[in-house]
Amino acid sequence: MVLTQVQQLDEGSSYTSSVFASRYVQDPVPRYELGTSSISKEAAYQLIHDELLLDGSPRLNLASFVTTWMEPECDRLMTETANKNYVDMDEYPVTTELQNRCVNIIARLFNVPLNVKEAAVGVGTVGSSEAIMLAGLAFKRRWQNRRRAEGKPYDKPNIVTGANVQVCCEKFARYFEVELKEVKLREGFYVMDPEKAVEMVDENTICVAAILGSTLTGEFEDVKLLNNLLTQKNKRTGWDTPIHVDAASGGFIAPFLYPELEWDFRLPLVKSINVSGHKYGLVYAGVGWVIWRSKEDLPDELIFHINYLGADQPTFTLNFSKGSSQIIAQYYQFLRLGFEGYRNVMNNCMESAKILREGLDATGRFDIISKEQGVPLVAFSFKERDKTLAFKFSNLLRRFGWIVPAYTLPPDLENTTVLRVVIREDFGRTLAEKFLSHVKMALKELDSMIRAPVPTIRYTIEFGPGENAGDEPMVKVVKQEVGGIQKSVPLLSGKTKGVC
Ligand SMILES: *Cc1c(COP(=O)(O)O)cnc(C)c1O
Questions:
Q1: For the CA atoms of the chain, what is the radius of gyration?
Q2: Secondary structure of the chain: what % helix, strand, coil (to 5)?
Q3: Pair (27, 145) in one structural domain
Q4: Which segments within 164-286 are labelled E, that is strand?
Q5: Which of 146, 335, 407, 489 is deepest in the core (most CB within 10 A)?
Q6: CATH number at residue 271
Q7: What is the pLDDT of residue 115?
Q8: How do residues 430-479 score in pLDDT, each as one tens digit?
Q9: pLDDT tens string 224-242
């Protein structure tokens, strides 16, 4: 999306420089207008390739959950299938079948109550954002249908979430005209409080959205407690308020690392779950999933039916055409890794997160805000209550190539600034150790930039003449606590002083 103005500094800047590619192109190539003539494929490649060199390195981007490495075999599959449109189900029935397998695999991973022969209800999306829009629409429509049947007004739907909610939920609320009711956060408690959420539920609540893996801190919200409290409230009021779980980041963590944790379809009020295939599903950007508990939870009027080969192919997506490479890559990962493979990858990520957490803690400068259980990330803030430190520190780390975001927390914790390092599969032990050593260097630089010199110990070596002429000179080490760093070395007659 372009909201900013195009760069129009001077005549030259509206052209893409062709200096390096000048063996292929002689004339400058316009930047914001279609060129009048064609250029060779070599030149086009070189120009774009070179300009992209100025992007950050995806592998050093510790800000994002989204996959930045896949096996070359999978890269190959993705390139081979780049020309298949996902929506052409008649033409590509095998791709459609692979999507359906993925939906079933994920649904069963999330303990959907189905027997072996039953097909799961769900769809592949562009990411969790589209998945959440679809899940939200299903809740809204279900609620409206019920209210209409009861002869009650159905024009003021709301959704209850924590203030830590991801932006896509806010988008859903605004785009589809649903009021967003947020439970505020408080010091030391960075996720939705289920009790407060249930208090906020009223007859117009289409669902409570819980997050498995809060974007800010990676923490899992207590979906089981929410389910229990909401069940009681539903019983008391006669309402039927359901739960959606936004498992964008945690959906591929919990089943492998915490199989006993009940957060999914094992809880009766959980009617739909979304997960990002391109996060811990281990696929490059462009795939998410939404799974419904049963057909009853997805109103039929939202589904469009396509018939092919005599079978009914239901579809429910916001957009029509899109690539199928990511869907195929998701199936590759399921086939290739199996339960064991995913568990190993997630275990490794957790190990790296532990090393980072301990290393950051050992500097004595940070409060660690993320929990040990959750998504493999470390969220931390400076112990000093200076809101600007985190932003300065983030800039300093950028000089080493690391991209570590700093952000303020949502209400009521706007005064806390947090830094977050997300661990992905390709962030190995060596990188973790390197990162920690850069953290220490950046801390030193931060201190020298903005703080009064820290008290240091100064050792002074003093050389004096020996007691008798001809003796070896006497050496004395003097230890002193000093405020700053001594910059000059005074030379006194007969004595040499040095600071070390
Ligand atoms: C990343 C994330 C989203 C958005 O997911 P996309 O797949 O990037 O669209 C939604 N909710 C949570 C909790 C997330 O972490």
A1: 29
A2: 35, 20, 45
A3: no
A4: 179-183, 205-211, 243-246, 270-276
A5: 407
A6: 3.40.640.10
A7: 86
A8: 999 999 999 999 999 999 887 555 556 777 777 776 667 667 767 777 77
A9: 999 999 999 999 999 999 9
The predicted structure's pLDDT at residue 413: 85
Band the pLDDT of 10: cuts 50, 70, 90: low
Q: Say if residue 398 is exposed, middle or buried (CB neighbours under 10 Å; 0-12, 13-18, 19+).
A: middle
Same domain (yes/no): 179, 224? yes
Q: How many domains does the chain have?
A: 3
Q: Which of 212, 246, 370 is the pocket-test mutation for ligand 1 (most atoms within 8 Å of CB)?
A: 246
The confidence score (pLDDT) of residue 204 equals 98
Tokens for 253?
């963590």
Give the binding-site residues of ligand 1, using a 6 Å CB cut-off: 65, 127-129, 166, 168, 211, 213, 215, 246, 248-249, 276, 288
Q: Which domain holds residue 269?
A: 75-334
Same domain, 51 and 79: no
Distance CA 311, CA 328 (A): 22
If one counts every other C-beta atom within 10 angstroms of the C-beta of residue 217, the result is 23
> pTM of the entire structure?
0.86
| Contacts within 8 Å (CB) and 24+ apart, 453-456 | 453/483, 453/484, 453/485, 455/481, 455/482, 455/483, 456/481, 456/482, 456/484, 456/485
What does the block give as tokens for 83? Answer: 């020309």
Ligand 1 centre distance from Cα of residue 210 (Å): 13
H or E stretch including 397? helix 389-398
